[in-house]
Amino acid sequence: MRAIADAATAPAVEDVADDHIAQFLVHLEKERDVSPHTITAYARDLGGFLDFVRVHLGAAQVAWERVDRLTMRSWLAHLARRGLSRRSSARALSAVRSFYRFLHRADVVESNPARAVGAPKIERHLPGHLDRAQVDTLLTAAATRAQEGRFTDVRDLAILELFYSAGLRISELRGVNRADLDLLGGMVKVRGKGRKERIVPVGGHAQRALREYERVRESLIAQVGPAAERTAFFLSRLGKRMSPKTLHNAVVARLKGVDEGAGLSTHSLRHTFATHLLDQGADLRAVQELLGHASVSTTQIYTHTSVERLKAVHRSAHPRA
Question: Is 267 assigned a catalytic role?
Answer without folding.
Answer: yes
